[in-house]
Write a structure and sequence with these properties.
This protein has a domain of 177 residues: Metallo-beta-lactamase, Chain A (4-Layer Sandwich), CATH 3.60.15. Helix content is 26%, strand content 25%. It has 10 helices and 11 strands. The strands form 2 sheets. A 6-stranded mixed β-sheet has the order 1-2-3-4-5-6. A hairpin with an 8-residue loop joins strand 8 and strand 9. The radius of gyration is 17 Å and the shape is globular. The protein binds 7-hydroxy-6-methylfuro[3,4-c]pyridin-3(1H)-one and zinc ion (3 copies). The site of one zinc ion (ZN) has 6 residues, from helix 4. One of its GO terms (molecular function) is metal ion binding.
């Protein structure tokens, strides 16, 4: 059986204010941070965990986040760099449906979409303050049409992609050595992912349950959250899981650490 490989697909960068990255702590000022997707080549198939943001969506809805993304940093471009095509991807897992984690789903037309049941539900009934976060519904065109208004919902266009969704709850080993751990708080159904590998310590991808090493060191959550108390508990859970499995934490938006991560076409195995 071929060894599992993990590729980090650089998805470009965005800007937020330091007080958004470190809730009530800051410091303020522009903070440019990375976004990326994780491709797992596994004996059971090709998985992608999170798909970054769509440049045009961000320019339209949140231009103040100043997206910087080259063609190689889109999902099709990043896949091409490792000799793959979007239709080679069997599963796309979203930690959550914030726009900077699902913007590339729409390219993965052959993939089955896995997410937490509560996360898919949240997209239809989020809190008013979550509107910008959940602003890119291109991963679920039917939902987007339904939300756009009943008049459009009646006749979905034939050419839109109609993803298959598989919703999960609880901690899951979705394939041998490929784990999803519930880390709610940032959003209702947030999942973090751990990959066990043959030649190195497990990789525990925090997603937005912890933006950076600095957030973890300060035990300080981001200001984008549904439930701050649950967010803090999830950050502590990540610490405990890393200790239990001797796993290395990989953060979602850490400008410092990302420079040291091996990016595709390099890989971990
Ligand atoms: C990067 C980023 N920017 C804005 C928002 C989020 C983000 O992760 C989540 O909810 C938001 O409004
Ligand atoms: Zn988020
Ligand atoms: Zn909304
Ligand atoms: Zn994010």
């Amino acid at each position: 059986m071929s060894d599992t490989k993990v590729y980090l697909l650089d998805g470009g960068t965005l800007v937020i204010d330091g007080f958004h990255a470190f809730w009530n702590r800051g410091p303020g000022g522009e903070l440019r941070f990375p976004c990326y997707a994780v491709l797992v080549e596994h004996a059971d198939g090709t998985y992608i965990f999170d798909t970054g943001y769509d440049h045009d969506h961000v320019m339209k809805v949140l231009p103040f986040e100043k997206p910087l993304q080259t063609p190689e940093q889109t999902i099709p471009g990043a896949l091409a760099r490792i000799g793959k095509k979007p239709q080679d991807v069997d599963y796309v897992i979203n930690s959550h449906y914030h726009f900077d984690h699902c913007g590339g789903n729409k390219y993965l037309t052959e993939a089955c979409t896995l997410c937490h049941a509560k996360e898919l539900e949240a997209c239809s009934c989020h809190q008013p303050f979550e509107h910008l976060g959940y602003s890119d519904l291109s991963f679920a065109p039917d939902l987007a049409k339904a939300k756009a208004g009943a008049k459009d919902a009646a006749e979905p266009a034939l050419d839109i992609y109609t993803p298959k969704f598989e919703t999960l709850t609880g901690d899951q080993e979705i394939a041998k050595g490929l784990w999803l751990f519930e880390t709610p708080g940032h959003t209702a159904g947030h999942y973090s992912m751990m990959v066990e590998l043959k030649n190195r310590r497990p990789m525990l991808f925090t997603a937005d349950a912890c933006y950076s090493q600095k957030n973890m060191d300060m035990m300080c959550i981001s200001s984008f959250h549904l439930d701050p108390t649950a967010s803090l508990k999830s950050m502590q859970r990540l610490k405990d899981l890393a200790e239990k499995y001797d796993a290395e934490l990989f953060y979602s938006h850490d400008p410092e650490s990302f420079g040291d991560y091996i990016k595709a076409p390099g890989f971990y195995s």
